[in-house]
Amino acid sequence: MSRTKRILHVVSNVDHYEGRSTPTGLWLSELTHAYDVFAARGYEQRLVSPKGGRTPLEPRSLKWPLLDASAKARWADPTWSALLSSTARPDEIDAADYDAIYFTGGHAVMWDFPDDEALQALTRDIYEHGGVVSSVCHGYCGLLNTKLSDGRLLVAGRRVTGYSWCEEVLAGVATKVPYNAESEMRARGAQYEKSILPFVSKVVVDGRLVTGQNPQSAKATASSVVSLLAS
């Protein structure tokens, strides 16, 4: 009998835009939608962040209508919400224990995901041992600089999606973010794709690399990961 599948969720420790008083953090539904999909399959799940400990929540994700039934139910559950205060550090994680890694979003991750070498190592090890690497929305910032053992960027030549520059502009935060993630992904040789309309679900699957464009894509992204793990 095969063992239970295990998912490693990556969340941020950043709570404000750099140099500004504007708060940010994890976009809650991007975690809860995926968590629900994986839980329905009986998968074991754990949260990790660059520094461990608390992951702050993006205030906008806690307001109606963005705080949907999934996010609201998980947030109101003391046992589950305690997970957000006690995330693991990367050095406490053995990549060999996990079948997939899932990078959540929220603008916060633009600061602490891209250059974290410990997260890059976990991602590389999971991928090179046959696991699935996935992200949703700004989570793809965590894949920008991840290199495989042969020195190639994981995303080079690969089809990916993630929060688009158009969506940054429409969300009113284009002047606050530290870089254009879409352009940075293209600069690394990735074949970036996006939906014709902003803020609608889009998922791109390229082998064992699964990326979702925006918060609306979290459930479909997780479902694609499940399909790969079941195949």
Task: Describe the protein's architecture and organization.
One of its GO terms (biological process) is methylglyoxal catabolic process to D-lactate via S-lactoyl-glutathione. Residues 29-226 form the DJ-1/PfpI domain. One of its GO terms (molecular function) is glyoxalase III activity. This is Type 1 glutamine amidotransferase domain-containing protein. Belongs to the peptidase C56 family. HSP31-like subfamily. The chain is of the alpha/beta class. The protein has one domain (6-230): Class I glutamine amidotransferase (GATase) domain (Rossmann fold), CATH 3.40.50. It is 29% helix and 13% strand. It has helices spanning 28-40, 69-76, 78-81, 109-112, 117-128, 165-170, 181-187, 218-230; strands at 6-10, 44-48, 100-103, 132-136, 159-160, 191-192, 203-206, 209-212. The strands form two sheets. Strands 2-1-3-4-8-7 form a six-stranded mixed beta sheet, sandwiched between helices. It has a two-stranded parallel ribbon with strand order 5-6. The longest helix is centred in the first third of the chain and has 13 residues, at 28-40. The two termini are 16 Å apart. The model has no long low-confidence stretch (mean pLDDT 96).
Question: What descriptors fit this protein?
Answer:
13% strand; 231 residues; Rossmann fold; globular; two-stranded parallel sheet; glyoxalase III activity; six-stranded mixed sheet; Prot/Nucl_acid_deglycase; 8 helices; stress response; alpha/beta; 8 strands
